[in-house]
Design a protein that fits this description.
Length: 474
């Protein structure tokens, strides 16, 4: 532990009894804190409560008591998804009580160096690749955070010879103060989560907290093609190691020859690393990557840069790049039916992610999209739809907005699905309509450009229903 007595004797409130909340409550209890865990759900909806109480942790369910947050509380650890407008959080801030997410606690108890990976899109793919690269290099990685093991659970078990490889959201990073990863990567920035952050300034500043406590011996891996990422360079305290699809870098990881923005071609390209002395090291031909798409080349570049910054041998990188076949719900091939290929990209919860997935296909696409309305007009999708998408099937709160974007893109085949009260039935109907619109050689792509919460519990549930519907096509 970095600070064995950091939490000893402190009165701590853990807000939210999801998986991460349960683990952070256990960790704080073992560290000697006086822990109260609280969830607004009723007791019967909190099966974890009995487990925590058996350890001697106080659990309060069914709302937030008025005296939950009081001057004696020294720390509030909240579930990342709980907004800062929530009454207990507001009360804590009024009293000057520190409000953090489990990322902060995990940092203080973790003996291993930490790799932190964030961005609007590509986090899970990049994090998975890095874990596999470090495994191939014999560096004993532990992959955790939004992917795999809850962060506090993994941090408590990590040893000095491990590497923690952590996928991080803006929600998690907003609640950090001392958190300092040895290697920190910002993949990209797109407009998303504004219902939580309120504005892009808060969203970007939350992402940038990944770098706030780095020191000269640490490394910041940045997307050189993203103007927001590049704009953070003057504020970096660690060494900057960039990656780029479109530029030959003086030092960093890049595609050679570079891609031309918005232009498709079949030129042979390599992923290469130019070191600080100017020597260029080929890593892998792009054509040998295990998953398709220009944006996945970008993820591969980032993963290589992260692994190199952590000290992995260059010879350990090519194998994982070629062998990895992708993550569920992220441009996942589902099946071919009557000559039509079906892909599940349910994780595309913003317009940029959908743009990126569309760029992976040269075949005509029938796009299934729509979901939670967070205020976007989706007009940024128009160029990606035009000439590439032959038909759209739309559902969810945003279907009218997306239909307008499709009309502006010149798409004539626009189908709207009545959401009704049965979300699964609506998505199954969307798959059926898409199958009717598609011809042999086409692609049917679920890439919603929206979060799922207007109709489904999660993007995973949405993706699973889509896959089941595809497999039942007759």
């Amino acid at each position: 532990m970095k600070h064995p007595d950091t939490y000893k004797g402190l009165e701590v409130v853990v807000l939210g009894l999801a998986k991460s909340g349960v683990q952070v409550a256990k960790v704080l209890h073992r560290a000697g804190a006086v822990v109260t865990a609280n969830d607004q759900k009723e007791r019967e909806q909190c099966p974890e409560a009995s487990e925590l109480e058996a350890l001697g942790i106080s659990v309060l369910c069914g709302g937030h008591p008025d005296d939950l947050i009081h001057p004696g509380v020294k720390l509030l650890v909240k579930n990342p998804g709980i907004p800062y407008t929530a009454q207990p959080v507001q009360r804590a801030l009024e009293l000057g009580i520190e409000v953090v997410t489990e990322v902060e606690v995990a940092y203080h108890i973790c003996e291993a160096p930490i790799i932190g990976i964030t961005g609007s899109n590509g986090k899970t793919t990049t994090t998975t690749w890095v874990g596999r690269m470090l495994e191939a290099a014999g560096m004993k990685p532990i992959v955790a955070g939004n992917i795999g093991t809850p962060l506090c659970e993994a941090a408590a078990e990590a040893k000095q010879d491990n590497w923690m490889v952590v996928e991080l959201s803006s929600f998690q990073l907003k609640g950090t103060h001392d958190f300092r990863p040895a290697v920190a990567c910002l993949l990209n920035i797109a407009e998303t989560h504004l219902d939580y952050h309120g504005n892009m300034e808060d969203y970007i500043s939350s992402k940038a907290k990944l770098f706030a406590n780095q020191r000269p011996e640490d490394t910041a891996v940045l997307n050189w093609d993203d103007p927001v990422c590049r704009g953070l360079v003057p504020y970096m305290k660690g060494k900057v190691l960039p990656f780029s699809l479109t530029e030959r870098l003086q030092e960093g990881v890049y595609a050679d020859p570079p891609y031309v923005p918005e232009v498709e071609d079949d030129i042979r390209r390599d992923i290469v690393y130019r070191d600080g002395s100017g020597v260029i090291h080929p890593i892998l031909p792009v054509v040998e990557l295990g998953i398709p798409g220009r944006f996945n080349v970008g993820n591969a570049l980032a993963a290589c840069a992260i692994a190199i910054a952590a000290g992995a041998q260059l010879t350990a990188l090519a194998g994982p790049l070629a062998q990895f076949r992708g993550v569920e719900h992220r441009l996942e091939f589902v099946a071919e039916h009557e000559g039509v290929s079906y892909y599940n990209n349910s994780k595309a919860t913003n317009a940029k992610a959908t743009q990126m997935s569309l760029s992976s296909f040269k075949q005509p696409v029938v796009l299934i999209a729509g979901g939670l309305d967070r205020g976007s007009d989706y007009l940024e999708l128009v160029p990606a739809l035009r000439g590439r998408v032959k038909a759209v099937v739309l559902l969810g709160q945003t279907k009218a907005k997306l239909a307008e974007a499709a009309r502006l893109a010149g798409i004539e085949q626009i189908e709207l699905v009545d959401n009704g009260e049965d979300a699964a039935a609506a998505l199954i109907a969307a798959v059926s309509k898409s199958a009717a619109l598609a011809e042999s050689g086409d692609v049917v792509l679920l890439s919603p450009a929206c979060a799922s919460w207007d109709m489904f519990k999660s993007y995973e549930e949405r993706g699973r229903i889509f896959k089941e519907a595809v497999h039942k096509l007759k």
